[in-house]
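New to this. Explain the following:
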Amino acid sequence: MTRYFEPKYRTILDAEDGELEALKAQSAQDEWKPSFHIHPQYGLLNDPNGLAWFKGKYHVFYQWYPYGAYHGMKHWAHVSSKDLAHFDRHDTAITPVEDYESHGAYSGASLQVGDELYLYYTGNVKYGAEARDAHQCLAIMNENGEIRKYEHNPLIKSVPKGYTGHVRDPKVFEKNGQYYMLLGAQRDDQTGAIIVYRSPDALNWTFLGELTVDIDLAGYMWECPDYFEVDGKDFLIFSPQGIEPEGENYHNVFNTIYAAGTLSIEGLSFRVDEYHELDKGFDFYAPQSFDADGKRLLYGWAGVGEVEFPTDKNKWAHCLTLPRELVRKGNRLLQRPAEALELLKGSSVAEGELSSGSAGIDLAGFKAWRAKLKIEQATDLQLEMFVSENEKFTITYDRAAKKVITDRSGMVHVTEPQYGATREVTLTENLFNLDIIVDHSIAEIFINDGEAAFTCRVFPLTEDKQLKVTSDMDIYYEIHEMNRGIDE
């Protein structure tokens, strides 16, 4: 079959003279560029890829299309950090120039093998608007940071019988002396699944079959599988596409699930004890986790679907979430901002005690800040952020129902309004703290030491804004600026 071509399927190597420099200059002027969230210099960012602690540095790769704020030929971009707070940019890690990746180097994960970091990814090939194939590929980074593609790519050619060309996002791990690869897949009957391969050397792979996950979710595609252990418990994260809203869950176009249970890799089964939505916000998808210094850390894509953003006009879109530490509490995963973010703590904006009633805190001119609120006695609470004459973003806590509701209907720029302007979660105990981190165009809200998290893109129109708090009990608060962690 003839390979499919559109102008969006050109690589960074096909740029005209001065084109990339012009894109960078245009994007740099945008007021919504984050100060410390990982974001593209220009073009579109989506899934985090290849996350690793390797040779004394944290390495974060991500899906990147250079030429505009839309999905096109995906490359792997690369940043690294010694402290998980301040990041350096590197040359493009994977540019899809080979036949086996003719329409993009899609997502994947990393694995350290000896003194090298293996970067597994999916090579996407399209033969028309619908017809496609997928190959599982490998790039290798040495201890000097040099990256080469494996000379015998693809590791796995095409897809097994019974599945469409939508097979992607390899997650590789070692267990019981063998290597295993999980892949998100779509069956021929247009339902989602996870399939499994095994290898003795992380290079030569044998198809084992489909992983049985006893979970009452279907969907037409399961993307970005991730498996890991925390404190002796197995966890499986995946992003099912095409599931319907259920109560307070799954109200985005695409959603992400984590399941706690027991993996029997030899038996190709994952017994589920509990499963929950991972993030309750408006803009979260395709997360990936990794081990570093005994901690399980996670990044997600702060975006979802294909929607318009105010940044599109300046040729860039999206960012990653902050790094989050995953902590086990029974069958639950708590998500907490990584401790390293304290390295970005700037000057104090305000702190003290708000007496019961209503009070406002002036945040005019502040675009990157962190607020920590401590609630010592159970109370109804309303918190309004980005308050100006025309806008507000509201967080409400209903003490009787133990329910937190976020509402961005009061913001002028609302992405994907067809899915509603509110998101909610019922807590297991009364609200006792909030940790809110704002970075120009993104707010991440952590409830009760990470029991719940909301990722929300926000685009307040004015710098003349307030934070308003209304409660029945006293609230203790601390707000400080956040310093820059990644440069243009």
Q: What stands out?
A: The radius of gyration is 22 Å.
